[in-house]
């Protein structure tokens, strides 16, 4: 049976809003990771079959196929093509899936799966805003309205709906967020991320974690919606960042003298209620575990994107995972969520944490716009 191996994974630091990466062109940000990936793996870049890059806000400097432009900006061979994809927040996790599927199919041997987002330069929602300003229709047309009615469809409403459904209080959310910052601050202080990070613009560490935050400070913030429980403190941070992963076949490993660091065990994807939007990691995880024959107790390290605190909290409640194994070094509430870059960044963190701790299986998942979720299970080698 064919195998797909992860032979390299790197990322930039995750920069905060108006932080050290906020003035770096997104093409240059992605180019740094691509160049570092080639250098650290020692692979012949001309042998790469494709570069698949996730990017959500494909507007302005993130248009015109940023995957191709970033590869060329890195000074890499013109013979290698690139394609940019959008599965909302899961875009670069989907790029990993596509890369692995290309290798598993036998049609490709070396594929770069990457992602990038500069939310400082290209703000979230800018594509919809720009379209509406020019008199273009909203993304949802008449047939959508016939099915779901005229109601608000947003991640903010979805997060509040989750809190109502699972009965999460503001205090529970803030205690979770506080723990995320504490874990992330510890990881940064102990240098857990140092080997996986490519310094950019003088920035060497993730800028988001707040070691000095307190529950009292969080309690003083206004909710994002009147009458709601979600605040900025229990939401993922606006961020800038990029990550890249190299997927190789057994033949490529032999031909290029590469060292497999993990193998892809299972790829799963599912959809759920698009109004709740953020709940799909739950059924997607169940599907992935069933396909792999593993139980959640077999998984040593879990990365679930903290888009909002109720997402991991509901997932933990439904799946029954060990909270200590889930986002052990903090998540997006503390470390940030650069949209299309997050999937590749999380996979880089997951692989390195398995290697640091000696764990065997890792699982990655995240909620995505439209009520979707990817799940990837890997085995450290």
From TrEMBL:
Active-site feature positions: 89, 337, 367
GO molecular function: acetyl-CoA C-acetyltransferase activity
UniProt cross-references to Gene3D superfamilies, sorted A to Z: 3.40.47.10
The enzyme's E.C. designation: 2.3.1.9
Keywords annotated in UniProt: Acyltransferase, Transferase
Top-level division of the source organism's lineage: Bacteria
PROSITE patterns: THIOLASE_2
SUPFAM superfamilies per record: Thiolase-like
Class in the EC hierarchy, top level: transferase
Record-annotated Thiolase N-terminal domain positions: 5-251
InterPro entries with a match to the protein in the record: Thiolase, Thiolase-like, Thiolase_C, Thiolase_CS, Thiolase_N
Record domain Thiolase C-terminal: where: 259-380
Protein family (similarity comment): Belongs to the thiolase-like superfamily. Thiolase family.
PANTHER family in UniProt: ACETYL-COA C-ACYLTRANSFERASE, BLR7806 PROTEIN
Protein name per its UniProtKB record: Acetyl-CoA C-acetyltransferase
